[in-house]
């Protein structure tokens, strides 16, 4: 069981790292498509942008090791400040909806025949961001249960 958990954990970490860089490359290419009128996207452009994102991440982690704690502290403060800067206008200026609409209404605007398939596909986006966090917490739990079962 622990060996299987280890392999799943390694595969998930590799997949999350690869998919995060891929999403960043796709966003960059989307911004280029949106802002440069005569740009024709080719498949290899996305691949080169993907490798560029990975190269920047590697260089920041290797060369910026001394300033990285300062960058992380600044990013933390920036995120906390922007949380309130964005939350306050959204709460006060956004249109109000009823509780029934928010919690009970489901709109399938994706064109899928089944509401279940549409719901599961919509859930993938939010679940993707928790893959690494889940693996951090499931490993100690499994290891502690393995120790209890041996005794």
Would you summarize the structure shown here?
This protein has 151 residues and is mostly helical.
Topology:
Blueprint: H1 2-35, H2 43-63, H3 68-93, H4 99-104, H5 115-128, H6 131-150
Helix pairs in contact: 1-2, 1-6
Describe the structure.
The chain is an all-alpha fold and 151 residues long. It has three domains: 1-54, no CATH class; 64-94; 99-151, no CATH class. It has helices spanning 2-35, 43-63, 68-93, 99-104, 115-128, 131-150. α1 crosses α2 (43-63).
Keywords:
extended; 80% helix; 151 residues
**Biggest sheet descriptor:** none
Percent of residues in helical segments? over 70%
Distance between the termini: 17 Å
Structural class: mainly alpha
Question: Could you tell me the radius of gyration in angstroms?
Answer: 21 Å
Q: Which stretches of 5+ consecutive residues score pLDDT under 50?
A: none
Task: Sketch the topology as an H/E string, one letter per element.
Answer: HHHHHH
Count the beta strands: 0
Helix tally?
A: 6
Q: How confident overall, as mean pLDDT?
A: 84
Strand percentage lies at: under 5%
Number of domain modules: 3
* Molecular shape: extended
